[in-house]
Design goal:
CATH superfamily: Nucleic acid-binding proteins
Number of domains: 1
CATH architecture: Beta Barrel
Shape: globular
CATH topology: OB fold (Dihydrolipoamide Acetyltransferase, E2P)
Largest sheet: 7 strands, mixed
Mean pLDDT: 83
CATH class: Mainly Beta
Distance between the termini: 51 Å
Strand order of the largest sheet: 3-2-1-6-7-4-5
Radius of gyration: 16 Å
Structural class: alpha+beta
Amino acid sequence: MKICHWFAVVGIAVLTAAPALGQAQSGTIESAEGNTVVIKLADGKQFKASVSNSRTTITIKGQKGDRAALKAGMACSVDAPSDGGEAKTITCN
């Protein structure tokens, strides 16, 4: 019983140790070239995501957009599974 309990505690610790995985990352676009967007996060780190014209949903000021409309300086939120992964959604103000 103690072994099972130990694994449960380890599982919880692992889940709480990596909160950014799969969560939207918000910041300012540093660059948007080709199919890659680089976001500068509030902590100064960069978050990169690939952008698909067919699989990534892009919204700019409430309107549907495409990756050609993404420009440096825009405040955006990117939902990607990991740094460098393909974005599911990009929402910009």
